[in-house]
Amino acid sequence: MAGRSFGKLMQTFAAFGSGTGSADPVNTARGTFHNGMSGMWSVMYWLFVTPFYWIVAVWYRRMRHLTLGDWFVERYESRPMGVGYCLFGLGFFILYGSMFFSAIGKVAAPLVDTETVTLMGTTMGIEYVLVPVIGVVVLAYGILGGLQAAYITDLIQGLCIILLSIILIPYGLEALVEKFGDPATQGMGEGFRIMHEQLNEDHFSVVGSNNTSEFPLQRILAVVLINLVGIVVQPHFIATGGGSAKTEMNARIGLVVGNFLKRFCTLGWVLTALIALALFADHPELVQDPEKAWGVASRELLGPGLTGLMLACLLAALMSSVDAYMVVGSGLVARNIYAAYFNPNASEKTYINIGR
């Protein structure tokens, strides 16, 4: 918990960074490419849950536990409950992390304009090079600095995530004017009108308006209720949700503001995806695999330097999530397996080393 010493700014970007992964803009772009604006609900399900964070942040601050596994042990007076929660937490982190890593592969290939690389005579997908490199970087600063290092990098990476959320929009609007309008007489703002002309009305429906939509109203309501129940037991929430904050108000403001910041970024992802749909609806790569929409749009709209920056921002989005997952996951093993069953009276230094 790094001494429960973090203020509002660090807690805000910890919540924002750990809750925003590389898969989020990719999934939003894919959903929007298939469903129009209602595709935003692939990520925006949490919108109506976020206000409740004002209440739950205080729970984690008052628990005074290091892991949620500790809470289950106390609540049910059962050490095996802690082990069970530890296994659940590790499985949760592995599944979420793998989703983020696989998203990088979908974006990186179009950005660098190659699906494969050859190393030492072996040809492999580009993601099989990027993922281990990212893993080494995250492991290094996580082992050296723990949660504090994760939060500091989340602050930097959070700014990168905000940048990637908006950087494609002006370039996309200019491209719409160049492709369908008259650049000599029309400005960037005309791109919005052209986008509406190129897409049919259903694409601008916030809720799925036909039987083929992935996001009808009843599904949105059902998933919101599921998320409201499930969010409070996500393993990293005890740290990023307020347990590491200096005060209860820091916990509340950090968790709520950080997550609303993600909702605003989602709007940028949706607008970017609509622009990409208007520009590249018949692009052969996207017809075959809509999950590449973000990567193809970045490659086609951005210059070489900005393309590299986009890839760096997406890597930052991945790292800002998996660093918190790694620190909390190692804490679960140290607290709820090693301390509970092997060495309950060890020193803090021993537990830290086990976590590392």
Protein architecture, described:
This protein has 356 residues and is an all-alpha fold. The protein has 16 helices and 2 strands. The protein has helices at 8-19, 23-35, 41-44, 53-63, 68-76, 79-112, 127-166, 168-180, 190-198, 217-230, 237-243, 248-280, 284-288, 293-301, 304-342, 348-355, and strands spanning 116-119, 122-125. A two-stranded antiparallel ribbon has the order 1-2. A hairpin with a 2-residue loop joins strand 1 and strand 2 (122-125). Helix 2 crosses helix 6 (79-112), helix 6 (79-112) packs parallel to helix 14 (293-301) and helix 7 crosses helix 15. The two termini are 14 Å apart.
Helix percent reads over 70%
Q: If helices are DSSP runs of H or I spanning 4 or more residues, what is the number of helices? A: 16
Mean pLDDT: 85
Which band does the percent of strand residues land in?
under 5%
For the secondary structure, the number of strands is 2
Q: Which residues form runs of ≥5 with pLDDT under 50?
A: none
Secondary-structure class: mainly alpha
Q: Give me the side-by-side strand order of the main sheet.
A: 1-2
List keywords for this structure.
356 residues, two-stranded antiparallel sheet, mainly alpha, 2 strands
